[in-house]
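To whoever is on call:

I kicked off a structure prediction for a single chain this morning and the downstream step that reads the tokens threw a length-mismatch warning. I double-checked the sequence; it's 317 residues and nothing unusual in it as far as I can see. Pasting both halves so you can look.
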Amino acid sequence: MKYSKAQAKEYARDQMRGIWAAALNPFDGDGALNEEGLRANIRHWVDDLDIQGLFIAGKQGEFFSMSMDERKRNMTIAVEECSDRAGTIMSISDQNVSNVLELGLHAQACDADFVVVHAPVLSFCHDRDEVLFNYYKYLCDRLDIGIAMWSHPDSGYLMEPEQCARIAELPNIVAIKYSVPREMYVRLSHMVGDLIQVSTSLEDDWLDNIEELGWQLYLCSSPPYQLQTKNDKRMHEYTELAFSGRFDKARMVRDSLEPVRQAIRSTKPGGKPTAHGKYWQELLGQAGGFVRHPMLELSEEEKNRTRTAFEGCGLKL
């Protein structure tokens, strides 16, 4: 590893900066991971789009459909391709804590920078404070790598800011991807200061969170490689403008992307978000591929509507 457990928080403050994107995984028609397609995507994201870190094998990557060996291979490929050019944070989330630990140890062994673990589903459990603290402490005691919490509605509840702040005191808790209403992540940001990195995946709020909360990390979803091309890096541009304090100019650049956002929002079927994201990637020249069960593929009509919106959204190819 690149740091000791005691250095995890400091390392994260230095290295977790800028735009980190959550990778969709390109699968072939037979369900196999398209390794060459994934490698080409990573090179494009890092070298052409200046994305500074990648979130691997998460919900966007359909980890729930992958075997343990596939998830480990997914991590290894990402580390090989990112090398020293971009950071990596590996999703080791699983309902079985033995699988979480096994994946975490693999992430350490393959030289990943960080891991992320979402809050577990807690059936019949309504008083969650001690359960959640002990869950993350159990992992911190057994792993040296920096760990990010992840709270989202899919767990059946949202971790309260007070719960997150308590867990943030653990030595190798370094960040949280906090997929919650803005009031909650604002409150947590004020509570923890720079103890850990706080972030959410909504690109619409990224600029405001830099300006109002002093955030330095976008962690993370697919907009960084869906809103941008090699010749049109407006998300990167407005981020760097905001980091330099030029917020008026940054807002102008951010707002200019609204036709692209609207093209994506208006054509994304509610039941097929992953297939839509992959088809959008293909329109951009990236490797998209197929989804795995239980996710559904786009119909030809849905593809036609998406392609028409894409062609009129104003992205420079």
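Update from on-call: the warning came from a stale cache, not from the record. Cleared it. Sanity check on the structure: Residues 68-82 form the longest helix (15 residues).
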